[in-house]
Amino acid sequence: MAFHHVSVMKQEVLSLLSPAPGHVVVDGTFGGGGHARAILERILPDGLLIGTDLDEDAVTNAQACFADVQDNFRIFHDNFSNIRAVLDQCGLAGANGIVLDLGVSLHLLEKSGRGFSFQREEPLDMRMDGSGGGPKAMDVVNAYSQDELARIFLEYGEERQAKRIARRIVQRREDEPITTSGRLADIVASAVKGKPGRIHPATRVFQALRIHINNELAHLEKFLETCLDCLLPGGRLCIISFHSLEDRIVKRRFAALAQGCTCPPDFPVCICGNQPKVKLLTKKVVKPSQAEVEKNPMSRSAKIRAMEKLAVEGAGGEDGRAKQ
Ligand SMILES: C[S@@+](CC[C@H](N)C(=O)[O-])C[C@H]1O[C@@H](n2cnc3c(N)ncnc32)[C@H](O)[C@@H]1O
């Protein structure tokens, strides 16, 4: 199956990650491998690109499309929140670079048949790892209470009409269980009040369900807890997010890692002893150029934040392979 995705802000990722020959770089959200291929070209002849993805189609596609660089490439069907364990399996102390390009690929949206798009009539699944366990979106939509559904739509979709939509879903599922993306999209559209906006009325509800089903924010938090331990001194992390919930989490964690002393300002001397652990490479978020947004409108909400792990005494500047 041909795997379709258009990578966003490739040049910006390259200039922030600064991959060089011999580097070990992890692409935690491999997708169609667009970022990975561009990075690989910079780390050859002796670098290593490690990919992870939850979507088994992405992994199968990677095995075929990256066969030409098999000595410099490994792919894992895993969650990026497990990157530390993946590096351990590869016998590596850390990476020189990590990139995350959060959310779904065009493949998941358009070709997976798993109900990610409100524009398609497909089984309402929404698990990125279609081979994994855990509830599908249809289980949630048909079993959760009205309050619980409203909370998900509000919290993960920032949907102002969350309560109305949840009420309508609960009414309609009495007639017949909601099992397809098309039917859910119609039910949401029928519940939403007001003039049609710029985006489809089901956009936020679909985003919210997807985030809930895949536990996306919790995995991002877990990754951010371990990211420092996965980077070599001087190693860089670059995260592309597509909505404010993700961006807020990344921004706060980066700021906490970059912060030095946390003593109250009226303390005459520092007693916490905290030192900054990273340097922020993006004081302001990096956004796609106007030209990119015109070419690929789906890039319009993308934002990059990047940081560099500060070198500790005597340990800076190595590459990951040297530490095996
Ligand atoms: C936006 S796409 C990445 C596209 C890729 N950068 C490219 O250039 O083709 C996001 C990918 O990340 C995967 N993904 C999302 N969350 C994940 C997670 N927690 N762990 C592993 N993969 C994840 C999705 O399955 C999807 O393939």
TrEMBL record:
Belongs to the methyltransferase superfamily. RsmH family. Specifically methylates the N4 position of cytidine in position 1402 (C1402) of 16S rRNA. The keyword Ribosomal protein does not apply. Keywords: Cytoplasm, Methyltransferase, rRNA processing, S-adenosyl-L-methionine, Transferase. GO terms for cellular component: cytoplasm. GO terms for molecular function: rRNA (cytosine-N4-)-methyltransferase activity. It catalyses: cytidine(1402) in 16S rRNA + S-adenosyl-L-methionine = N(4)-methylcytidine(1402) in 16S rRNA + S-adenosyl-L-homocysteine + H(+). S-adenosyl-L-methionine binds at G33, G34, H35, D53, F80, D101. The keyword Methyltransferase applies. This is Ribosomal RNA small subunit methyltransferase H. It comes from the Bacteria. Its EC number is 2.1.1.199. It is an enzyme of class 2 (transferase). One of its GO terms (biological process) is rRNA base methylation. Pfam families: Methyltransf_5. It is found in: Cytoplasm.
